[in-house]
Amino acid sequence: MRTVSSTKFPRIEEKFPLLYLIRTANREDLPSLEWNGEYRHFRILYQDIFQSSLRGEAIMWIAEINGVGTVGQLFVQLVSARSELADGASRAYIYAFRVQEPYRGQGIGSRMLQVAEASLAQKGFCWVNLNVGQDNIAARRLYTRQGYTVVAAEPGKWSYLDEYGVRHEVNEPAWRMEKRLGSPPNISVVLD
């Protein structure tokens, strides 16, 4: 009698890259930045930033997945009252950078940073900086991998008007991180 043993083949899982588009936001995108109500309280802030983008003072980047919608956002301030952050010529400031939880760890955030930096380099900016919450270790690790270094502590005090026009004071102690931009990387950036 012959015994036939069953041979188990290793399970092979193919990982397909997540297909997403990174582009500048338009007016119709503003509701999607609220992420189904999670950031509704920033509605007026988003409208103000969009108006700044129309004046050439800011850029609003979004990452979207076909059939899902907006899954990431990154805003760049080109001009600020604090010239050490954004002076309109050589320094720019990244803020409101987030990727929805289910899509983190898949390269979307890194790619958004690369696209924003390439856009800034094409415009002649030499420095980019951002603030990261002192307790946000994961984000700080991402920025460090992308070439940012801590240059200062920031009190992180700011305010905004919520969707009802009520002012809220925010206190988020942060680290200011900075990166010197080199020549534009081989990334095609097309601004609308």
Could you characterize the architecture of this molecule?
19% of the residues lie in helices and 31% in strands. It is an alpha+beta fold and 192 residues long. The strands form two sheets. The protein has a seven-stranded mixed beta sheet with strand order 1-2-3-4-5-9-6, sandwiched between helices. Strands 7-8 form a two-stranded antiparallel ribbon. It is globular, with a radius of gyration of 20 Å. Residues 1-14 have low confidence and may be disordered.
In short:
By secondary structure, the chain is α+β, with helices and mostly antiparallel strands.
The low-pLDDT segments are 1-14
- Describe the biggest sheet? 7 strands, mixed
Structural class computed from helices and strand pairing: alpha+beta
What is the N-to-C order of secondary-structure elements (H for helix, E for strand)? EHEEEHEHEEEE
Number of strands: 9
Topology:
Layout: E1 21-24, H1 43-54, E2 58-65, E3 69-77, E4 91-99, H2 108-122, E5 127-133, H3 137-145, E6 149-154, E7 157-161, E8 167-171, E9 174-180
Parallel strand pairs: 4-5
Antiparallel strand pairs: 1-2, 2-3, 3-4, 5-9, 6-9, 7-8
Looking at this protein, list some descriptive labels.
single chain; 192 residues; alpha+beta; Aminopeptidase; seven-stranded mixed β-sheet; two-stranded antiparallel sheet; 9 strands; disordered N terminus
